[in-house]
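The data are set out underneath:

___
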Amino acid sequence: MKTLMFSDCVQKYLLNYLPLQKGASENTRAAYSRSYLEFYAFCNIKLGIRPAKLDFKDINRHLIEEFCVWLEDTKNNTAQTRNLRLSAIHSLFRYIELECPEYVPICRDVLSVSMKKTLVKPPSYLTKDEMKQLLAQPNTNSMSGRRDLSILMTLYDAALRAEELLALRVGDVFLNSAPTIKVTGKGNKQRIVPITKVTAEALRSYIKDNGLSQKPDYVLFTNSSGNALTRMGITYILKKYAKSAELPMIYIPGGKISPHVIRRSKATHLVQSGVNIYYIRDFLGHVSIATTERYLRNDPETTRKSIEKASLSLVIDDNCYTKSQKENMIDFLRTFQKHK
């Protein structure tokens, strides 16, 4: 049997294993490939080896550790990005460990490189008032304005990731008495998300405006040229209206608005409204409840109210004790046991 080169394993992993065995989306494969491009670039600089010539004998724990340092010091990547790149490397070598037993020692060596601890920041979001201001900006007297409003409302109401919005087809929108959207999320997992009747009406008008009623397979949102909308296009629309609304964005460090900020805003608003965290998890399409719980920590006002409510039962009225009870310390302390 021919021994596989490192480049062969990378190709098989991206072209066969990820899409066919793991059901990974194009976005996932694109993200992983960016990490491998960075790794190849580093190896070319560090070792003077072109991608096609890089082999397993050149790879070890020390090289991966140097790659991680290079990402932060030379490429100015954050610790989070460094961890994402390392995670992609780890995923590749876990695959190689299964497919090529002869490389198990090298794989174990690479997999021993640990993630860097990072400061977990609370998710940034728009307040409810800021969100209302943003949605009030598009000019609904024009088709482009109505399209932009439909995009913003759908993005917020369904708490969509950018790629989920871009993947929507006309046939994924159900505008009946209980309007919903069929969303294809990470790992091609589908979920049905309810939307408000106001958003449904905006989508109904948009679909009618663009003659899409009988075209279920068409991309739902397009740009001014009629081509599929891009992530950059969504970000441009967001920045445009955030600027015109002069949003203070008090919970967004640096005022950097993005499609994911809108998703976080919806999640935070659901928490503030007292929606069960497990419903929010399913609504957002999270696999782990731990991911959703970040939004609980994100809202200090909700936390404060919960603490105050819980504290009420702990307050003991000191007037309920007689003078003699207080003077007799043993009896005084025993009275507290009656309040359990």
